[in-house]
């Protein structure tokens, strides 16, 4: 992203998977931007 001169504004968590964790917080640390999570993300 940085090499291309692009700027991340939003990191959107749309759903979860029971077999792996999200990289949302890692992406936020690396690329900035605002991390948002839907109200029903805990519903499996």
TrEMBL record:
One Pfam family cited in the UniProt record for this chain: Lactamase_B
InterPro entries tied to this protein: Metallo-B-lactamas, RibonucZ/Hydroxyglut_hydro
Domain Metallo-beta-lactamase: 3-40
Top-level taxon: Bacteria
Gene3D superfamilies tied to this protein: Ribonuclease Z/Hydroxyacylglutathione hydrolase-like
Name the record gives this protein: Beta-lactamase-like protein
């Amino acid at each position: 992203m940085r090499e291309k001169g692009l700027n991340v504004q939003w990191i959107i968590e749309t759903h979860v998977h029971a077999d792996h964790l999200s990289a949302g917080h890692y992406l936020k640390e690396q690329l900035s931007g605002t991390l948002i999570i839907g109200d029903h993300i805990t519903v499996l």
